[in-house]
């Protein structure tokens, strides 16, 4: 589950991570009030208007603007709130339709000169925390080259991207925090601030059961504070039961509408780019099914796990969801009758066919295990244009044959 920048900052701040503070604006009329509140709370003269969508690269697409007075705040809020923002990361990229901006965050300006010397002395770093499965550790990835595309830095100057592996049981050690601050070229007060920053950031990553925390830019201010000027956080959905308050932050408007609906029906659905719809019970079998479709020359259109206790109703819901994709050329139903009885699935297929009406894509069914014979009987007697297959390979070959016409 992805969080918006304003939510991520709120969360990180609970763990003591210093952030660029802000006020959320949902209505254009609130711009003036928000600016007043922000100035009161932070003492900032300038402010930054930042579009809140689930995509990075907002700056490049015109979704982050500096405002030097109330008029500019109003103008930028007016322009950004409600716009279709295109960034390299929104669907279809800069050529795509963009994403509707429903909220903006008005933040304090953290790129200010040193109050004592008047000098500008900021530094943009990159820092993220995630799990390295191969190393069986968490890893802190960081670089002096923050602010811009970290992907480009990693590709062109990989030596500038550092990694600090953290053993999940030992936790982040003092020497590791110091090594990070040192490698970022910091000294004095900034060095100390950075060790504290990393420590709190790691605590947030573990405490919130995050799968990713990414701060870009992680800013050293002119007066040697370290603050999260941007933040991206993804939470592990399997741990959300431990974070009921965070689960409520889920913004369904940012999700694929079909995936949202599938979730309501208890279906585990992920939309993909191919043309073979898949309906499978069990995540492992679903992955194997997608693999074999690909190996046989086809392209799966989705991942769909109907669950171990699938019934006729759920099968029908799954059908409707798969069929919503206009790219679908065939559907492969692959169910192993373990807990579930195959004849129930078969009945579901037949019912769905009748209830939904004009299903005009060919369907290949492979029902094996508990109740397979009865299931075959139901399918055969139904008189529907459903092809049966016995082995998984047969099923995949059959699907590719019908897709090819
Ligand atoms: P992203 O483009 O989606 O990654 O959005 P960011 O939150 O990283 O903002 C984009 C850029 O805006 C940053 O790289 C900064 O250069 C700039 N920016 C962010 N906060 C401030 C600020 O407080 N003051 C100024 N002057 N620029 C800022
Ligand atoms: Mn950023």
UniProtKB/TrEMBL annotation:
Keywords, comma-separated and alphabetical: ATP-binding, Ligase, Magnesium, Metal-binding, Nucleotide-binding, Tricarboxylic acid cycle
Catalytic activity: succinate + ATP + CoA = succinyl-CoA + ADP + phosphate; GTP + succinate + CoA = succinyl-CoA + GDP + phosphate
Enzyme class, broadest EC rank: ligase
EC code: 6.2.1.5
Cofactor mode of binding and number, as noted: Binds 1 Mg(2+) ion per subunit.
GO terms under cellular component: cytosol; succinate-CoA ligase complex
Residues where ATP binds: 50, 57-59, 110, 124
UniProt domain ATP-citrate synthase/succinyl-CoA ligase C-terminal: residue ranges: 279-397
Residues annotated to bind Mg(2+): 216, 230
GO molecular-function term, one example from the UniProt record: magnesium ion binding
Binding site for substrate: 281, 338-340
Associated pathway: Carbohydrate metabolism; tricarboxylic acid cycle; succinate from succinyl-CoA (ligase route): step 1/1
Organism superkingdom: Bacteria
Family: Belongs to the succinate/malate CoA ligase beta subunit family.
HAMAP family, alphabetized: Succ_CoA_beta
NCBIfam families to which the protein is assigned, alphabetical: PRK00696.1 (NF001913), sucCoAbeta (TIGR01016)
Function per UniProt: Succinyl-CoA synthetase functions in the citric acid cycle (TCA), coupling the hydrolysis of succinyl-CoA to the synthesis of either ATP or GTP and thus represents the only step of substrate-level phosphorylation in the TCA. The beta subunit provides nucleotide specificity of the enzyme and binds the substrate succinate, while the binding sites for coenzyme A and phosphate are found in the alpha subunit.
Subunit composition and interactions: Heterotetramer of two alpha and two beta subunits.
UniProt-recorded name of the protein: Succinate--CoA ligase [ADP-forming] subunit beta
The organism of origin for this protein: Saprospira grandis (strain Lewin)
